[in-house]
Structures are given as C-alpha cells and as structure tokens.
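Trying the structure run again after the queue cleared.
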Amino acid sequence: MATSIVFSTLLALCFCYVSFAFDPQPLQDFCVADAGGAVRVNGVVCKDPKKVTAEDFFFSGLQKPGNTLNPSGSRVTPVFAAQLPGLNTLGISMARIDYAPWGINPPHTHPRATEILTVLEGSLHVGFVTSAPENRLFTKVLQKGDVFVFPAGLIHFQRNVGYTNAVAIAGLNSQNPGVISVAANVFGSNPRISSDVLAKAFQVDRNIVETIQSKF
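Done. Tokens:
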C-alpha cells in the first residue's frame, strides 16, 4: 500500500513537471522567422538554417524620419520579428518614434513587453498609470539623452512639449510586444462595441460616444 502511494505521488510530480516546465531561452543559435511557413506556432516557425543569410539579421530604415502628418502627430517605425526575421525567439525588439511639435503617442499598452524609451531629440512629457485600484499616474518631462521605462501591460503615453520635432528610440523585451491603443481599440473596434455599453462605461451621453466612434 505504501509503495503504491509513493509511486502515485512520484507519477503526479513527474506529470506536473512535464506539464509546466518550459525553456525561457532559445534551444539553438537562432530561429529566423519563416513568414511563408504554413505551420502555426506561438511565434513564427523557423526558416531552414541552410537558407539563412546575413540579410535575415539586418534592417535598414531607422535613420529616416517617420511621417507625422496624422491626427496624433506621431509615427512609430517598428523593428519587430515581422520586419527583422532574425529577432524570432530572441525576445527583443525596438522602434523609432517621431513626434511633430505637440504631437502625441496616444495612451496605449504593450500586453507582452516592458518598454524602455530613450530621447534622441527634443523634449517629451511621458507617463504611465498603474493598475486598479490605485490608478496612480507617474509622469516626467524628458530631455535629449534621458531614459524612461514603462512596465509591461500598463497604459502609457508620450507628448512632444517642444516647438521642434522630437525623436525617441524604444526597446522592448518581446519580438512581438503587441499594442493596444486605448481610444482606437475601444472606439474603433470591428465590429463596434455597443454605444450603450460605452456610454454607461464612460458615463457620457450616447451621442458623444457615437461622435467619437465616427473618428476611428
């Protein structure tokens, strides 16, 4: 009887270990993304290593200013695994962000990454809000050379507070950090979230919600 109990316990422990164990680091030198692969995985399937070239680890374009002629007055140029296949499985990515004078990178979150932001040119007012129930706002005005970090999953924003263009570089600890833009996702979803739901959530008239929805 005792032997049976011990065996059952060991079997359960082994099952739990196999079920929950994972490898936080790649198990090979690289796994260049094969965008044309038909297999669906959590990430992107690996390209045949024999077909990998230096171009798979190269991206050119961050020297070019992004077009900020849009309602937000900003432009994000991402360098994720979709743009740089060699990033696949490496858990890192980056982006250039351009801001017109008084332009904003609207409140948004990255569900899969922490972001570290470095100002290259100009002055930025940045901030993030903690989760409920505190909803605490942390803000800072950054100058050229300053660095600020936005914890994973928290709503954050940037605003150019100068009369000239501003530029920043963001580093993220995911090959595909994802982005949820608060206003665009809530008011511009497809299909639309019911205006009655949003009116009650934001405690405003339904007509106001529909006006906002019309802009997305």
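Confidence is low (pLDDT under 50) at residues 9-23. Worth checking whether this holds up in the mutant runs.
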